[in-house]
Specification:
Distance between the termini: 38 Å
Strand order of the largest sheet: 4-3-2-6-9-10
Order of helices and strands: HHEEHEEHHEHEEHEHEHEHHH
CATH architecture: 3-Layer(aba) Sandwich
Strand content: 15-25%
CATH class: Alpha Beta
Number of helices: 12
Structural class: alpha/beta
Number of strands: 10
Largest sheet: 6 strands, mixed
Length: 306
Amino acid sequence: MGQGSYRASDWQMLRQSRRLQETSAPSEVFDSKTAKDIFNSRMVAIRESRDSADSPCSTPILLGFDVTASMGYLAKELAVHALHSTVMHLLEDRSVTDPQILCAAVGDSRCDRVPLQVTQFESDIRILTQLLQLHLEGGGGGNQGESYHLLWYFAARHTRTDCFEKRHRKGYLLTIGDDRCHPSLSPGEIRRVFGDEVPYMLSSEELLREAAQRYHLFHIHLSSDRPEDRSIPAEWRRLLPNGTAELHRRHLGCLSELIAAMISLAGGIPVNTVLKRMNQNIAEIIAPSVALIRPEPETSGQIILF
């Protein structure tokens, strides 16, 4: 996939035709009642990010977001505002060449019916049209974690990219959510979610290392003021010491700038350049955090937003 070019006018037409508004409920934005087979990870053998006439130097970006419990507000923010804004930042800033974006709805492999849904890698308005076809299961089991590591497994074993195969360059993988990551994936979970036969349990650390061979890895933890959530960012920093971001829900409007900044800095753009080209009110909020990112080829950067 990856044909075509992204145009702001296409987004405006899509937004008008779907009546996407800030006041829309998540269930109005995402109206699929069940997960479609074309996006069900068990039905997807490979997702490919390939060069084309429109994208001669493609850069794969996987963006996974939590769709458990009350996380519909995050999916809505991505659909109504943040994803379009992120794409425009990447194109205008030219921080990566020819971005091709895959969106992933992440749930809980221990209890959800379809814990992982994945769109195609796309470079035009299909980034958004496919996002809007995903199903918000709203599951999760109150079991002290969600299955963000499903996307690491998928990226490592079910994606093929010209970026890595032709140019030996990494793509980018970001997950966003408000919970811990389960510590492992069992053979039974892997069989049910992907249809793969793996004879042993895989730890989150193993899955991170495997995915990191081909992708810069980041996680954005959406924090709240609940006392029981205060230990979660530290657990993420243990997993991704150079790739963990903390964004309070009240700063959700900064999400697109945060995502674009992480990608830009990991790709080697100087921090001062990144800050100067964004809205200065937002720059003031995230400046202490983006200063911590370093463009290291084999590791991700660390960013913390207070």
